[in-house]
Amino acid sequence: MDIKKLANILELHKKWLNAEKDGVRANLRGANLRGANLSGADLSCADLSGANLRNADLRNANLRDADLSYADLSDANLRDADFSYADLSDSNLSDAHLSDANLRNADLRNANLSGADLRNADLRNANLKNANLRDADLDFASIPLSCSLTKLKVDNRLPFQLAYHICSFKSDDKEVIEIQEFLKEFANKSHLIKDHDLEEFKVKKTKRTTKKVVKTKKK
């Protein structure tokens, strides 16, 4: 999209947000904004559904309540951006840089977040149903333990990470201890050990018992 045209749309959108005369809500549905510099832009409540924002710079941008469904945000710089209450359903966020982003209450159903950097991201109350989080980095992210995580697509990174956290719990409950013992082997495969210099868990060696088979001679 032409830079001047985009600047005009943003200016009219700003007026619309402030309820000023001649203000118009930004309609960027299906727009080609690949590689666009939108850092710090206020696109709250804007329609960006199906837009091409691949490699775009949206650092510190305000996208609260924006419609980004089916948008391509792959490889985009979305650090510190505000996506709270935004519709990101069916969007492509693969390899996107979302560290410290606000995704609270965002709709991320069926979104592709594979390989995304979500470190320190706020995902509280976000709907992640059917989202793809394979190879995504969720270190220090706030992620809900709710039904919105059902059918989440993951590789072994997140399960191993969760296993490590579970094994770190302090409990005197017998069943919890049994679960922890079972998970320790998986927990020791977590990237947390190498990346954050954490200790491995001691795995108890189980003794294998072999039954002696006594052969009886036929008379």
Provide the descriptors you would attach to this structure in a database record.
4 helices; 219 residues; mainly alpha
Description of the molecule:
The model has no long low-confidence stretch (mean pLDDT 92). The longest helix has 15 residues, at 3-17. The chain has 2 domains: 30-147, Pectate Lyase C-like, CATH 2.160.20.80; 160-195, no CATH class. α2 (157-168) packs across α3 (174-187). By secondary structure, the protein is mainly α. The chain is built from 4 helices and no strands.
Q: In CATH, what is the homologous superfamily of the largest domain?
A: E3 ubiquitin-protein ligase SopA
- Main beta-sheet annotation: none
Number of helices: 4
Total discrete domains: 2
Task: Count the beta strands.
Answer: 0
Q: Mind telling me the CATH class of the largest domain?
A: Mainly Beta
* Residues in β-strands, percent: under 5%
Stretches where pLDDT falls below 50 for ≥5 residues? none
Form type:
elongated
**What oligomeric state do the depicted chains represent?**
single chain
Averaged pLDDT, please? 92
Radius of gyration of CA atoms, rounded to a whole number: 24 Å
- Structural class by SSE content: mainly alpha
User: Helical percent range?
Assistant: 10-25%
Please report the distance between the alpha carbons of the first and last residues: 94 Å
Tell me what the CATH architecture of the largest domain is.
3 Solenoid
Order of helices and strands: HHHH
CATH topology of the largest domain, what is it called? Pectate Lyase C-like
